[in-house]
Every structure is written in C-alpha cells, then in structure tokens.
Amino acid sequence: MEDVVANEFATVAVSVDDRGNSTRLRLEDLRTGTVRYLDALELESIVWAPEAWMRALLDPSQHRWRDADRGPAQESLDP
Question: Which residues of the chain are modeled with pLDDT < 70?
Fold first, then answer.
C-alpha cells in the first residue's frame, strides 16, 4: 500500500518495503522520482535529532534548490 503526503512544497509517496533483510520505509519524491529507504535506526535518529539539525535539513537552499535533477547530494550538514 502506498500513501501520498503532499503540501505546497513537496509531494512524497510513502510505503513500507519488506523485501530486504528488514522492514523499512520507502520514500519517493514524486517531483524528481528520487527514492530513499529508511530503516528503523534511521527513523529513530530523525526522531531524536536536535531541532537545529532538523531546521538545517529542511532548508531547501542547502540542497534542493541547487540542482533538482541530480537528486540528494552525498554531503553532510553541520550539527
């Protein structure tokens, strides 16, 4: 089952993938087709992340507005 989460800034398809070694969340940016999988540890890390880190992650000028066709960059954000 796939659900879509959308607002005026983004549209993402969300589904649970159990084809690998463990269950994980499958996220697809419907604008670019970019797909990312998050396992339980990655999801828990998001829950526990400091608010400042989340603000930096959600800032579209950090990555999204640079080159949308390339997909997610393999860079780190400062804590």
Answer: 63-79
